[in-house]
Amino acid sequence: MLQVKNLEVVYNDVIQVLKGVSLDVPTGSIVALLGANGAGKTTLLRALSGLLETHDGQITKGEIHLDGKPIHRRKAPAIVAAGMSQVLEGRRVFTEFTVEENLRVGGHTRAKGRTEAINEVYDLFPILADRKRSTAGYLSGGEQQMLAMGRALVARPSFLLLDEPSLGLAPRIVQQIRDIVVQINQRGTTVLLVEQNATMALSIAERGYVMENGKIVMDKPAAEMLDDDDIRDFYLGRGDGATSYSNLKHYKRRKRWLS
Ligand code: ATP
Question: Is the C-beta atom of 88 inside 6 A of ligand 1?
């Protein structure tokens, strides 16, 4: 179980981005975190995986517990060792390296069983097995996303943080990524899925959280969220020009009052 309690994060000592975020991800589940650009989703993931420091950010308040153990003061390698890996936004792969070399780098923290772990990745993504000697830079966007996910999986995490895996991909590929996330979860990995594609994320998640301006503004079962007209309107781009989910709610309320 991942528990985030009242987390606050500040960049460069002054810019407060997370303003008291609390969130639970039960072991074995998929939880979706939705939010528009700039809401603070990536910042939350950086805090979870110990990567804030490299961005001049720090946790100024709150706690993060993974399976009951505090991890908010740990550095990134210790967090990976505790079983949590992150797939960064923008499918960062080493473009000059081959697919296999990328996977070997992903497994640098676990020399033992690395080949076996890489074979498990090939089993999950047969296309990567076919392309193992190809240079990563020549892969399609979808394949690079799979490689980025594969790299994180080589560490055999019990907990996977996925930052917008569907970003910029064609609908057919998004569907594939979605199915793979389900498979990863069925193999025993808990998933926190950050997405702007609300329909995709909520269709496989148990629970959804909506973040806005560094705060959680909604938290409920994914099925209920999928039925929520406001969520659908805003995240499917039918937000009547509203610039945020909360604005949309106010806008609609005003419209109801005025009509
Ligand atoms: P996106 O989907 O665009 O990545 P997000 O919800 O993931 O959005 P963040 O990337 O966490 O949002 O950004 C939240 C806010 O924090 C933004 O206003 C952003 O400009 C600011 N921010 C992010 N990184 C830094 C940094 N290193 N220094 C200062 N401000 C930052």
Answer: no
